[in-house]
Amino acid sequence: MENVMDERNRSARRRQIVIRTLQYLLLTVIALILCFPFLLMVLQSVMPESQFQAGQIFPTAFTGLGYVKLFTENNYLTYFLNTLVIVVFNVIAMPLASSFCAYSFARLQWKGKELVFACVLSTLMIPGVVTQIPLFLMFSSWGWTNTPWPLTVPTLFGGGAINIFLFRQFMRGIPMELEEAAKMDGANVFRRWFSITLPLCVPILLFVAVGAFGSSWGDYFQPLFYYTDPEKYTLAVAVYKVTVLDGVAENSVVMAAGVFMSILPALIFFFLQRKLIDGIMVGAVKG
Amino acid sequence: MEAREELGAAATQTDQPEGRGGKFRLTPRRKRKLIGWLTGVVFALPVILGVLIFSYYPALQALASSFMKDGEFEWFFHYETIFVYDPDTWTVFGNTLLYALVSVPFGLVLGYFLALAANFKIKGISVYRILFYLPVVIPGVASGLLFAHMMARLDSNGVFNMMLHAIGLGELSFFEEASTSMLSLLFMSVWTAGGSMIIWLSAFKNIPSTLYEAAKLDGANAWDCLIHITIPMSTPLIFYNLVTGVIGALQCTTPLVVVGDRFGTAGGGAGNAIYFVSVKILNEFGYTYYEYASALSIVLFAIVGVFTLILFKTSRWVFYGEEK
């Protein structure tokens, strides 16, 4: 009898091991497929041009020439700084602005609140292209072309309807008691927003901030409208114009530009992934 | 209820300051209410202004100019051009609708299978989740040029074709030919399935495990669990992502313009097979047909509106759980 049980246990354990191995195998294959383009981009960015011409997929020799040319023959440092100004502004302004307005919808009682909130949400339905052209004309008439203003100033006005929505949902889940206690202690409404509610919104703050980073870092569409002066280009526009439209750059330079564009988002994701995935989940579930 | 009425009175009061000395007196209670209302409005003021200046005003302007020809009202002139004369119309709207209706469910299904794998209860699974999601964080311009590069012809060293060649298979035309362009675009979206994977993972996380345990006791297999537990319990998520996904796909531009510019004229791809409405609008604007571009954008707006409406009207099958 004991022997039979032993045999059973052993075969169960063996089956377990086989399943585990198959699971790891499957996961690894999927990961390899999904990361292949990114890997290839990194590898080809250090591949000598001759090897690319010869039709090699993976490099057997390495060169940093692509990156050197990126910064010497092209103006990528300037583009990077241009982008940085916009990105830093939006990363700070977007979470602050949207949490500020969301606080009104989540916590303050005022007549007309629901109607205004519905109006704010209704803007999500308006496709970007509808407003893009009139906005361009408006900003041009204000003399805002070739300045960062069209890409930064609108952020101050609410920081995006979807972000307000997310903040509002999140704030509603925070116990009211905390705020009431702060109110008793004489904290005014600004303090209650900034010192009580905001610190409790960290997951969603982070999520919105990274979203702000992603959208202003990768956006080539709007800058393409507003920047005509090559000196003012953002990184995304430069990559698009120089490498895609002109199409004269060497392969390693194109790939180096791609890596340069991707490395920061990838690093941010790596370091914040635990919290970010939580934030994404919050956003997804609350929908 | 009465308090609300009073608040309303206080609200209108702010519009007519001359009434202050008259029959309306600012009692301390009313003053408190007024301050409360003003606080709320002040906090919401940025977004109220923002919505008016950066959304409603430009949208109305687009609407107005769509009815104009060279600054004069000519009502449906541009709309007539769109629906009767412009040969691009059916191409761009057809392409856009096809893409939206195929790519969004495709992405959700793919993301589901990815989430199943990413939900294995084994060591190091979070590392795999990161790797699965990594392609999603790559900016559109970078992934656009990367895929354009990888999907090039064999003689321009397209990696996919080189790999096919290495295992003795024929060459794929990808974006070079009209017939394969749309499929190539869908193929590209395989790499962004990590986005919907996260959505599914959070759905799985929110389903009480007791449901599965109970089902298992009743002898349910994995398929039964999927059909009778996972999908019904995830309907709010599926619904939300279907709405936003379709609306997003209808307005899609980023990777397309990159890909389209490389392989076709004016961002339409080979044979205009991936010519999308948004790209067409921007082209028209580029040619300074501003009013025509506005009319096109209004048509797109109408289509987005119809989809939103359909999806909300059919949302009765959505299970939202016990309402709190």
User: Whole-number radius of gyration of chain A?
Assistant: 25 Å
The counted number of beta strands of chain A is 0
What is the CATH first-level class name of the largest domain in chain B? Mainly Alpha
What is the 3D form of chain B? flat
- Quaternary assembly: heterodimer
- Provide the CATH topology of the largest domain in chain B: MetI-like fold
Structural class of chain A: mainly alpha
Helix segment tally of chain B: 15
Average pLDDT, all residues of chain B: 77
Cα shape of chain A: flat
| CATH topology description of the largest domain in chain A | MetI-like fold
How much of the residues of chain B is beta strand, in percent? under 5%
N-to-C SSE series of chain B? HHEEHHHHHHHHHHHHH
Biggest sheet overview of chain B: 2 strands, antiparallel
What is the rounded distance between the termini of chain A?
56 Å
Largest interface, C-beta within 8 A: A-B, 89 and 97 residues
Count of discrete domains of chain B? 2
Description:
The complex is a heterodimer of chains A (287) and B (324). By secondary structure, chain A is mainly alpha-helical. Chain A has helices at 2-45, 49-53, 65-72, 76-107, 113-122, 128-141, 149-156, 161-172, 176-184, 189-197, 202-218, 221-226, 235-245, 251-286. Helix content of chain A is 77%, strand content 0%. In chain A, helix 4 (76-107) runs parallel beside helix 7, helix 9 packs across helix 10 and helix 11 (202-218) runs antiparallel to helix 14 (251-286). Chain B is mainly alpha-helical and 324 residues long. Chain B folds into 2 domains: 2-65, no CATH class; 79-313, MetI-like fold. In chain B, 71% of the residues lie in helices and 1% in strands. Chain B contains 15 helices and 2 strands. Chain B has a two-stranded antiparallel ribbon with strand order 1-2. In chain B, strand 1 (68-69) and strand 2 form a beta hairpin. Classes of the chains: A mainly alpha (287), B mainly alpha (324). Chains A and B meet through helix 1, helix 4, helix 5, helix 6 and helix 11 of A and helix 1, helix 2, helix 4, helix 5 and helix 6 of B.
